[in-house]
Amino acid sequence: ISAFLKMSVCVNFFRPFTRFLVPFTLHRKRNNLYSTILQRYISSKIPAVTSPNNESTPPSEELELDKWKTTMKSSVQEECVSTVSSSKDEDPLAATREFIEMWRLLGKEVPEHITEEELKTIMECVSKTAKKKYLKYLYVKEKHKKANQIKKEMKAAAREAAKNAKLLETTEEDKQQNFLFLRLWDRNINIAMGWKGAQAMQFGQPLVFDMAYENYMQPKELQYTISQLLESEGWNRRNVDPFHIYFCNLKTDSAYHRELVKRYEEKWDKLLLTATEKSHVDLFPKDSIIYLTADSPNVMTTFRHDKVYIIGSFVDKKMQPGTSLAKAKRLKLATECLPLDKYLQWNTGNKNLTLDQMMRILLCLKNTGNWEEALKFVPQRKHTGFLEISQHSQELINRLKKAKT
């Protein structure tokens, strides 16, 4: 009983210390266990090496660590070289395509169709952000193109629907009557216009378009000039008393000539006008020529039916003042400008008019002689309205008084 009591006293005494002693002992046992497992694993992988005893083991059986290290290093280098060579042998275009497909699968903004040139430009991009920006640019461009195509298709469908609706509204008899009427009308109109044009080529007043300004314009400006020339020829052909149009200084196979033939096609040889490589100075006497230019200091007062008016056929987008005036002075020709300041309240800006506007003004002056009617063809954006007639008449009276005195 006394021994039992002693044991219980010892247990009760050491019980508070078990919290600290037991983990320490377990940790030591665990470390010993890990060390034994590691030693067994290493011993299984590495062959056992006996203690260095020169007497018991021959030198051929010794482990050569230096050779082992060199072989391991050579194997690692071969692996690196093989990976580099394989990366070099890869096709960069294929890698770029994989990159684009990956971005497409991720839901990024990538175009559906990419050409070979675009792939090369993507491949030449320096950074990844540059590639992303270029892909986004191609995506937006393709999106705009699709939208424009859809708009064109919708407009074509609307036109087709309107045409079908009109055809459904009219009966077959109406169709035949309208077709016959239009056929006879077009035939008579063409005959009348052809007759007037042929008569103008024989007896009409000449109007010259100077085509010697090809080097002063860009290709886009040349296109605008040709469009205005075509419109001017149309207004002249439809007029009651047309001019005899001359295209002077028109060199064969020049930019002017190629574009005119392209626009008119087979009708170019049937036009009732004169196209020549000669200059207007060679065709008409200098005394009868008046060069119309906005830079001239001489203001036109009346339209003269016995003069040959010349218009420089070019579009001045770059604002080159004095080009036609300098040419007229070189040739010692008389120059005039339209009296825009006398009749119109002009806004700030140049007073250059288009070729078709000049044609309509000259046709109206030729037929009526009324400046107010002729200057109605000046665009309204360039002026605020006509001056009062009394003011203009008062200016004329004052000038006449000064001339008399």
Automatic annotation (TrEMBL):
<dbReference type="GO" id="GO:0052905">
    <property type="term" value="F:tRNA (guanosine(9)-N1)-methyltransferase activity"/>
</dbReference>
<keyword id="KW-0496">Mitochondrion</keyword>
<keyword id="KW-0808">Transferase</keyword>
<feature type="coiled-coil region">
    <location>
        <begin position="140"/>
        <end position="171"/>
    </location>
</feature>
<keyword id="KW-0175">Coiled coil</keyword>
<dbReference type="GO" id="GO:0043527">
    <property type="term" value="C:tRNA methyltransferase complex"/>
</dbReference>
<dbReference type="GO" id="GO:0042645">
    <property type="term" value="C:mitochondrial nucleoid"/>
</dbReference>
<dbReference type="GO" id="GO:0042802">
    <property type="term" value="F:identical protein binding"/>
</dbReference>
<dbReference type="GO" id="GO:0000049">
    <property type="term" value="F:tRNA binding"/>
</dbReference>
<feature type="domain" description="SAM-dependent MTase TRM10-type">
    <location>
        <begin position="193"/>
        <end position="385"/>
    </location>
</feature>
<comment type="subunit">
    <text>Component of mitochondrial ribonuclease P, a complex composed of TRMT10C/MRPP1, HSD17B10/MRPP2 and PRORP/MRPP3. Interacts with HSD17B10/MRPP2; forming the MRPP1-MRPP2 subcomplex of the mitochondrial ribonuclease P complex. Interacts with GRSF1.</text>
</comment>
<keyword id="KW-0809">Transit peptide</keyword>
<dbReference type="InterPro" id="IPR028564">
    <property type="entry name" value="MT_TRM10-typ"/>
</dbReference>
<dbReference type="GO" id="GO:0030678">
    <property type="term" value="C:mitochondrial ribonuclease P complex"/>
</dbReference>
<keyword id="KW-0949">S-adenosyl-L-methionine</keyword>
<dbReference type="GO" id="GO:0070131">
    <property type="term" value="P:positive regulation of mitochondrial translation"/>
</dbReference>
<dbReference type="GO" id="GO:0006397">
    <property type="term" value="P:mRNA processing"/>
</dbReference>
<keyword id="KW-0489">Methyltransferase</keyword>
<dbReference type="GO" id="GO:0070901">
    <property type="term" value="P:mitochondrial tRNA methylation"/>
</dbReference>
<keyword id="KW-0819">tRNA processing</keyword>
<dbReference type="GO" id="GO:0097745">
    <property type="term" value="P:mitochondrial tRNA 5'-end processing"/>
</dbReference>
<dbReference type="InterPro" id="IPR038459">
    <property type="entry name" value="MT_TRM10-typ_sf"/>
</dbReference>
<dbReference type="InterPro" id="IPR007356">
    <property type="entry name" value="tRNA_m1G_MeTrfase_euk"/>
</dbReference>
<dbReference type="GO" id="GO:1990180">
    <property type="term" value="P:mitochondrial tRNA 3'-end processing"/>
</dbReference>
<protein>
    <recommendedName>
        <fullName>tRNA methyltransferase 10 homolog C</fullName>
        <ecNumber>2.1.1.218</ecNumber>
        <ecNumber>2.1.1.221</ecNumber>
    </recommendedName>
</protein>
<dbReference type="GO" id="GO:0005654">
    <property type="term" value="C:nucleoplasm"/>
</dbReference>
<dbReference type="GO" id="GO:0160106">
    <property type="term" value="F:tRNA (adenine(9)-N1)-methyltransferase activity"/>
</dbReference>
<dbReference type="InterPro" id="IPR025812">
    <property type="entry name" value="Trm10_C_MTase_dom"/>
</dbReference>
